[in-house]
Amino acid sequence: MEGLRDRTRRAVRAELAGRALDLFAERGFDETTVGDIARAAGMSKRSFFRYFPTKEDVVFGEIEVMGEQVAHEIATRPPQEQPWECLHTVLRGWEARINAQVDAMRLIESTPALRTRLLQKRDEARTRIVIALADRGMPPLEADLAAAAAGAALDAVAREWLRTGGTVDRLTLVDTAFTMLRPAFLT
Amino acid sequence: MEGLRDRTRRAVRAELAGRALDLFAERGFDETTVGDIARAAGMSKRSFFRYFPTKEDVVFGEIEVMGEQVAHEIATRPPQEQPWECLHTVLRGWEARINAQVDAMRLIESTPALRTRLLQKRDEARTRIVIALADRGMPPLEADLAAAAAGAALDAVAREWLRTGGTVDRLTLVDTAFTMLRPAFLT
DNA sequence: GCCATATGTGACACTCGGTGTCATATTTGG
DNA sequence: CCAAATATGACACCGAGTGTCACATATGGC
């Protein structure tokens, strides 16, 4: 069960993230130092890094264990399912869990350092997905192509969603992208 | 024409890159400081940054203006050409210009900081490609999907090529990937 | 309630990548 | 040959991130 420790930890993390986002919105990401964030939350710079590994990560909240989780879901799917359907389904479900605020995404998209961090996370997830697909018996090249294509689909979705200001339904968009991008070689 | 200045500049860059790669191979990327590289090439740390914007860039040699160049090539292609063929042709030609050594690629692939830098460069290129495609009259979502898919293809190619130790023909691999990944919605 | 242990925190020093600046060569083009 | 452009070294500086130590506070078993 969850003790006092974990609860306070999560509270502090939330507090820290909140203060940070305020400052980012106010003066911009690059113009805000970790020291500023820490002071705003009433703690030392050193302690900030006990809650977040990097300054960028404060923006990505709970999205941290994505790779691990997605790969696991793929691994535990019915083995006879077609790879593209598998990716579509899993990532669709994952996309549903993101009640991503438009603000955070705009910030990420307009800040090179954050965009880079996003690319890193996606790439890390892609690596794990490739392994999961290979475990299902897919040849390496095909697994690479499929995983990279799926990542490409999600990227296009995010951008299109941003373009519309977050008005259209994100899941519909995911379905559209996955349908449009379905590679010829996948059944 | 090319004066003395440009020639010496290129020579110094090459010297710097050579020394750097030696050191990276010897002790690893992270264990080598910019000061080390500069000293090995007989100059100050400050001067290193007059030749390369970041420590990572010393590995990527001439691959710097990729985005700009590729976008320009796309823009100057016959307008009636199908987008996927266009991307295929342009990136194929670009891939041909890379006499990428296996060693450099291995280094990149096994060093997170370098892998990240590669992702950045690819993403920057992708952005420009999307613009170029949009200028050709492609709807934004489709342009995003196509550009991201093309990037995905190249990534898979690079990885497969590495997997084989650089033995197979890279251009054939590019053709295979582009054929396999061709999205359904592109004619 | 008590105590040994684990965990959180601040403070401080340090490394390293990267930038601004200035003074001083060296090169270039006229 | 001379004035303007460019290259260099030296130095100071910033900010992200880490190691360490001393001290406080919480935890779980008794």
Could you please describe the fold and organization of this structure?
The structure is a homodimer of 187-residue chains. Chain A is mainly α. The first copy, chain A, folds into two domains: 4-54, Orthogonal Bundle (Arc Repressor Mutant, subunit A), CATH 1.10.10; 63-181, Tetracycline Repressor, domain 2 (Orthogonal Bundle), CATH 1.10.357.10. In chain A, 70% of the residues lie in helices and 0% in strands. Chain A has helices at 4-27, 34-40, 45-51, 66-75, 83-97, 102-109, 112-135, 140-163, 170-181. The longest helix of chain A is centred in the first third of the chain and has 24 residues, at 4-27. Chain A is globular, with a radius of gyration of 19 Å. The N and C termini of chain A lie far apart (46 Å). The mean pLDDT of chain A is 91. Chains A and B meet through α7, α8 and α9 of A and α7, α8 and α9 of B. Chain A binds a DNA duplex (30 and 30 nucleotides) through α1 and α3.
Query: Rg of chain A from C-alpha positions?
Result: 19 Å
Query: What is the multimeric organization of the chains shown?
Result: homodimer
* Number of domain units of chain A: 2
Helix content of chain A: over 70%
CATH topology annotation of the largest domain in chain A:
Tetracycline Repressor, domain 2
Strand content of chain A: under 5%
Under the CATH scheme, the architecture of the largest domain in chain A is: Orthogonal Bundle
Sheet/helix structural class of chain A: mainly alpha
CATH class of the largest domain in chain A reads Mainly Alpha
- Specify which chain pair forms the largest interface: A-B, 29 and 29 residues
Can you count the beta strands of chain A?
Answer: 0
User: Sheet bearing the most strands of chain A, described?
Assistant: none
N-to-C order of helices and strands of chain A: HHHHHHHHH
Tell me the overall shape of chain A.
Answer: globular
Count of helical stretches of chain A: 9
Report the end-to-end length of chain A measured between terminal Cα atoms: 46 Å
Give the CATH H-level superfamily of the largest domain in chain A.
Tetracycline Repressor, domain 2
- Ranges of chain A where pLDDT stays below 50 over 5 or more residues in a row are none
Instruction: Give the rounded overall mean pLDDT of chain A.
Output: 91
